Amino acid sequence: MEITLWDYSNIISKWLIYIGIAAAIGGPFIAALINATVNKKSLLNYIVISSVLGFAAVIINFFIQVGAFSETGLSGMFDTGLISFLWQSAVGDSVLWRLLAFTVLGFALLWSNLNAKYGTFSFKDATFTFLYAAAVFSFAYSFTFIGHSAVIGGAAKWLLAFHIITVSWWVGALYPLWLSCKLLPPPVLYKLMCLFGKIAIFMVGILIACGIGLLYLFLENPLALLTTTYGLAMLLKLIFVGSILLIAAYHKFRLVEEIQQQAGIKKLQKSIKNEMLIAVVILTITAVLSSILGPE
């Protein structure tokens, strides 16, 4: 299979979209768990910058797909006929819902900013919670229009949507948790990590259930994991996902008890940093799977 410049561009833009969605979902969630008196300026910057980047990547990715369809070079990205055609297709529906999600989240951040001082930014306002939930649903819904699951239809597209949202929640929460090691005193950090660990158990259950369901629908048989290009790429992703879950288990059952001391906090920071590096790889593989590889 020959990989074109359009394919590389598609992969990179999708990777940026996933980063933006992850920050938009995981960032506010962790911020809501942190005490309101903590200065959250750095956390807010993470959410805003990543979301703006994701918003721009959604638009850029749409024009990349137009250019790929046109096959007439860079000028093909602005073919008005193809732009109109794709905008009225499932691709356009997906783009619309993602842009809507980022916009709704932007309004949620603006609303909370108008009702709280910048340094003590509140993520627990009822209106913010409603808008945040609406944005998460919009992100999830956007994944039901395109991709391999949309072709299969039925439960597959919603399994993928829940899977992506769960992964995004996890990945997007990592940087805020890393920041928390700097922002919070040991006792407060301990409570945050314990609470996150309890919530994560439920989220991991959803992640695993959706993952198994997707593998069953996408692969003809278990051997396809070893005999097809798509299967091998999926297997590689599963290995990295397994690695990140093992690190999370280490945090919950061993390391969390050590963060009452400064040395334990440093170990936690380093471990979360390793998780973030693995998460970057997982999102990269996901971008490749959704762009140039598919079930046979």
Automatic annotation (TrEMBL):
Gene Ontology cellular component annotations, sorted alphabetically: plasma membrane
Keyword field contains Acetylation: no
Annotated keywords: Cell inner membrane, Cell membrane, Copper, Membrane, Transmembrane, Transmembrane helix
Broad class of the protein's primary localization: membrane
Coiled-coil regions, chain positions: none
Topology in membrane: Multi-pass membrane protein
Limits of the Copper resistance protein D domain: 192-289
Residues annotated as transmembrane: 15-36, 43-64, 95-114, 126-146, 158-178, 199-218, 230-250, 276-294
Domain of life (superkingdom): Bacteria
PANTHER family, alphabetized: INNER MEMBRANE PROTEIN YEBZ
Family named by the database record: Belongs to the CopD family.
Function: Involved in copper resistance.
Name listed for the protein in its UniProt record: Copper resistance protein D
